[in-house]
Amino acid sequence: MGDVKMIKDHYGNDPTLPDPCLRTCSGSTGYGKRNWSTRTAFSSSAVTINVDISKCGFVAKPIVVTSLNGAGYNDFQVGMSSPRGISNTGFHINIMHQFERDPYQEVLNSRFAESWKFNINWIAVGYTCS
Predict the structure, then answer these.
(1) SS3 22
(2) Are 94 and 41 within 8 A, CB to CB?
(3) What is the predicted pLDDT for the residue at 101?
(4) How does pLDDT run across 58-85, given as a tens digit for each residue?
(5) Taking the model in full, what pTM does it have?
(6) CB-count burial class (<10 Å; 0-12, 13-18, 19+) for 113
(7) Helix, coil or strand: residue 129
(8) How would DSSP label each residue in 64-77?
(9) I want to staple 54 with a disulfide (CB 3.0 to 4.6 A). Which of 23, 72, 84, 89 is the partner?
(10) 8 A C-beta contact, residue 119 and residue 70
(11) Backbone angles phi, psi at 21, to 5 degrees
């Protein structure tokens, strides 16, 4: 088993919980799964996804790192590495087009995200005991 050490917690403070309670947990929302929702952000169409990390067993807000995978167009998006609403049981990701690509003007919605098999890969590090 690997060694995990947290230098600073989610708030940038020295950790107060014991190192043996640290856990690294990872997962994916699933390549091509139909769990995206359409929303509006800054007057543009966007998509959002809720990510459940409750099976990790964290007792406090973990540090979360994310990326967007897909079969295409995932490199034209922004927001995929900005998890929002992080808690010990989950977070969500909001994704928007980086720019509108004339003459195509694709509308980013849940059907678009699902057809291009968008999925969020994530790694979380946090405490499982206090």
Answers:
(1) strand
(2) yes
(3) 55
(4) 999 999 999 988 877 666 676 667 899 9
(5) 0.83
(6) buried
(7) coil
(8) EEEEEE-SSSGGGE
(9) 89
(10) yes
(11) -90, 0
Strand order in the sheet with 90-97: 37-41, 44-52, 90-97, 77-78
Q: Is 116 exposed, middle or buried (0-12, 13-18, 19+ CB in 10 A)?
A: middle
For 41-59, what is each residue's pLDDT tens digit?
776 778 889 999 999 999 9
Q: If we measure between CA atoms, which residue out of 90, 81, 9 comes closest to residue 53? A: 90
Instruction: Classify burial at 91, counting beta carbons within 10 Å of its beta carbon; exposed 0-12, middle 13-18, buried 19 or more.
Output: buried
Which of 50-71 are b and which e, b meaning 16 or more Cβ less than 10 Å from the residue's Cβ?
A: ebebeebebebbbebebebebe
